[in-house]
Structure to design on (294 residues):
């Protein structure tokens, strides 16, 4: 009986020893001893989402028609989506450029326009918005052909962009004085050569056609068409030699060749020969100019 007690006691001591060792080497949290639970801080950095530009629409999907000797406003619209919300969008830029230019080229009225502050038209503070890029002063000499609108959205480090293209139509146009005043020459005399400037108001090279009527006089008589002569390109010493008499038929001056561009013009001249008799008073008529693609 005593031996059994000793054996049982020994086994109990060994069992307790193993339990002590197991507890000693078991993993424990960093919580304070005796606390029933612990709060563990978790952290993560969410990466940035690139903004997405969609539905770019230049001039409502139609060709662009310019206005002679003036400017027009051209719109380019788009939508922008940013899954991090639009609050981190730092800029939206619209660039309008001709096929002969490039997005990053310098602005030039014939080929390149930039709007660096396109506006949100709806939905700020959300993930998506409509964007409006306006180009308010597109000139009449903007080069005809294919133009691209590039809408570029930036939210710090990432950029999204999309483009749309449309055609700028040819504009054949000119401007010139509305009156040629020959002054008050006497019978049988020639007027002075009257300077006359023609401006190219469009975006293509032009030629110019001319015809005219007789000049009826309120006193008596009339001055024939052929008494008016013109030279569209030279008012110097050779004016008389190189001048052309007005006719009833439209005559196109195919060598006029006035190029397009800002401040492109050509100065010519007009002269009137007064008959030696048979006319009196104020004489008036009409000359017609017809512009043509040069």
């Amino acid at each position: 009986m005593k031996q059994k007690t000793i054996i049982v006691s020994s086994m109990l001591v060994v069992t307790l020893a193993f339990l002590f060792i197991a507890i000693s080497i078991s993993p424990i949290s960093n919580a304070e001893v005796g606390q029933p639970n612990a709060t563990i801080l978790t952290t993560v950095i969410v990466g940035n989402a690139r903004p997405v530009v969609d539905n770019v629409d230049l001039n409502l999907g139609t060709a662009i028609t310019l206005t002679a000797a003036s400017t027009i406003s051209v719109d380019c619209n788009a939508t922008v989506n940013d899954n991090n919300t639009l609050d981190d969008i730092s800029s939206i830029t619209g660039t309008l450029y001709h096929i002969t230019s490039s997005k990053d080229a310098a602005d030039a009225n014939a080929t390149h326009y930039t709007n660096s502050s396109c506006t949100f038209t709806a939905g700020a503070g959300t993930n998506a918005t409509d964007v409006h890029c306006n180009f308010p002063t597109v000139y009449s000499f903007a080069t005809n052909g294919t133009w691209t609108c590039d809408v570029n959205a930036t939210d710090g480090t990432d950029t999204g962009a999309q483009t749309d293209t449309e055609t700028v139509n040819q504009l054949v146009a000119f401007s010139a004085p509305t009156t040629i005043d020959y002054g008050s020459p006497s019978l049988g005399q020639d007027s002075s050569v009257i300077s006359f400037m023609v401006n190219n108001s469009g975006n293509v090279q032009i030629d110019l056609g001319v015809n005219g009527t007789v000049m009826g006089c309120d006193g008596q008589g009339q001055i024939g068409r052929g008494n008016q002569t013109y030279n569209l390109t030279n008012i110097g010493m050779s004016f008389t030699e190189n001048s052309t008499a007005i006719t009833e038929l439209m005559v196109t001056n195919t060598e006029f060749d006035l190029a397009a561009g800002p401040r492109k013009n050509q100065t010519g001249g007009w002269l009137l020969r007064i008959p030696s008799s048979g006319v009196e008073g104020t004489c008036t008529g009409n000359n017609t100019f017809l512009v043509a693609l040069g």
In short: Helices lie at 2-25, 239-242.
